[in-house]
Amino acid sequence: MKPFVLLDRDGVLNVDLPGSLCSLADLRMIPGSAEAVRLLGEKGYGVLVITNQACVGRGDLSADHLEEIHQSMNERIEVASGRIDGWFVCAHRVEDGCECRKPHPGLIRDACRKFGFDPERTYFVGDAGRDVEAARAAGCIPVLVRTGKGMKAAAEHPEVEIHEDLLAFAKSLVPAEGAR
Q1: 3: which DSSP letter?
Q2: Residues assigned a catalytic role
């Protein structure tokens, strides 16, 4: 069974903007994040993104424009020889009360069903308390990065492993069993 690392998007891969990232022109990757995805792959891990994008549910961004942003992120990561194996998006608003919006574990469970990984051996790297809560609710190992909202989340969850950024986490991770 291939191991996976799950990533939040905003604040982990790209700069977290006030409000939401609603324009491709505003997309800024966090330095080292594309290289981190490459390194995770080299160490034998699949990489999945688990992200709340209520901006779609609010009508601030169309699903097609969100897909364009994700495609641009894929292209930037591929330039660094990395690969995102899948994107799992909750487009609901907070008030919709869905089970897929973090801190609920719905998206993680969907990813687990599709890719067949063991959540207990799966890291979820995020920058917010809701990422920690979703990871725990799904049985994953929560990890925080200091980018994005990470400093605040680290203060709220001092028991959770924390790294400067995604690249620091990727460098700390040992190769998966059976990695090339």
Answers
A1: -
A2: 8, 10
